[in-house]
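Bumping my old thread because nobody answered last time. Still need a sequence for this structure:
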């Protein structure tokens, strides 16, 4: 989403914007991902859940081009693609907000949002254009918690930092945004602010992949829930089709009593 395209209508969710089929990944003798299927839709929040060691980090790093997949099909907007690096993923419109946020405390909001992608004018930083685009992007996401885009990041709260990192991700014509534990270590009020922002990303037509251990957060904003268990995707279902207990059971055993552990389309995992 660009700074001038903040009211994008929700896209057709019939075809996934990002689709993985049969993804395999090993590190030496350790088989981390086993035949993983995943669909991310424009205009929807897909929550990726699983216990520690289930393979969530490896999966999102593969999507982002940090780790190459050993086997499987990677499609974007219905077309097969090959992603060798984060630059390739960024070129497609995939942005990742990692848990550490990668913000510089000594820089203000504007310079953090354009970090590594600074705009130049006559070989100098184009401060006015960057500030305008930063303001427009934040306004488009209905961010009201930042008093000034010139505030140093060191002076921001945890929720405000997360907001800046997410706004930076959608500044570059993004189509898919991956959020790694965006509410970790936040208080109740800040968590609600961040979850509202996550929901607005999908409402603006982006495909959102939310990684979270907090099932309350998941059920508050997710349209679909994908569950990894020991490197296998045991379910991708509509959030309204399962309850908290069933998701916990899927996370801990790979099965849910009383329902099929298939995909949201009714297929086997």
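Sorry it took so long. Here it is:
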């Amino acid at each position: 989403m660009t700074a001038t395209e903040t009211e994008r209508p929700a896209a057709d969710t019939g075809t996934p914007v990002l689709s993985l089929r049969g993804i395999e990944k090993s590190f030496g003798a350790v088989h981390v991902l086993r035949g993983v299927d995943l669909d991310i839709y424009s205009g929807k929040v897909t929550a990726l859940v699983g216990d520690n060691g289930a393979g969530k980090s490896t999966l999102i790093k593969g999507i982002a081009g940090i780790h190459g997949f050993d086997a499987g099909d990677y499609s974007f907007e219905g077309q097969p693609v090959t992603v060798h690096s984060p630059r390739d993923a960024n070129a497609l419109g995939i942005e990742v907000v990692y848990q550490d946020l990668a913000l510089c405390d000594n820089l203000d909001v504007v310079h953090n949002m354009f970090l590594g992608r600074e705009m130049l004018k006559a070989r100098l930083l184009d401060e006015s254009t960057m500030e305008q685009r930063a303001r427009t992007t934040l306004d488009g996401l209905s961010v009201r918690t930042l008093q000034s885009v010139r505030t140093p990041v060191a002076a921001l709260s945890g929720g405000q930092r997360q907001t800046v990192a997410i706004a930076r991700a959608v500044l570059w014509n993004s189509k898919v945004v991956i959020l790694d534990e965006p509410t970790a270590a936040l208080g109740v009020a800040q968590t609600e602010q961040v979850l509202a922002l996550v929901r607005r990303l999908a409402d603006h037509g982006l495909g959102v992949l939310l990684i979270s251990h907090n099932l309350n957060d998941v059920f508050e904003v997710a349209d679909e829930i994908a569950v990894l268990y020991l490197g296998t995707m045991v379910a991708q279902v509509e959030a309204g089709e399962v309850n908290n207990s069933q998701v916990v059971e899927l996370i801990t055993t790979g099965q849910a009593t009383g329902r099929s552990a298939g995909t949201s389309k009714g297929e086997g995992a």
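The longest strand covers residues 30-40. Let me know if any region looks off to you.
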